[in-house]
Give the backbone structure.
Amino acid sequence: MQLWADSLSDDSGFLGLINPAIYSSFVHEDWELDQLFQHFRTEMSKRTLLLWGTGIEGDLKIRVELGDSNASSAFREISGPIVVTDGGLSLINYESLTMAAQFPNKQLPEKHLEYCRFSLQAGTYNCNIAQMYDPSSSQTRQGDTDFIISLSKTTAACNSWTSIAWSNR
């Protein structure tokens, strides 16, 4: 079942999925890059954020589905757990994460990204992120979707992410 499908602008090479109800966004008014990425790793360990490198910038077409992944022709895939409370999750870009990290009163998602929210029942979900093509290839964007995100409710123990997927951070 499709939950969401649209484009999300990415100007930095990172996208994320957050639980906006419990994601702790503020870091410091003058955060340092290492401090910011440590914050992201902490939030991923709390299962409030999944953050991954895209390998490309621009308007990325994303489809979010409920159920097991069916992205059999994906270039690469990774899975991780995320907790849903208060009705749902939101896709997010790095630019919004950094703004919220700097300003204590900034709410995520920002108004211009409200369209990136989607509803889900409360619980723990295994999230499979599939990038559909090699971003370093000259044959990128061979289809109508850049990323397919599949969410499956689970009671199984899943290891939290300790680093940002597809990134050296």
In short: The longest strand covers residues 2-10. The chain has a mean pLDDT of 94. Residues 2-153 form a domain with the Substrate Binding Domain Of DNAk; Chain A, domain 1 fold (CATH 2.60.34.30). The helical segments are 33-45, 94-102.
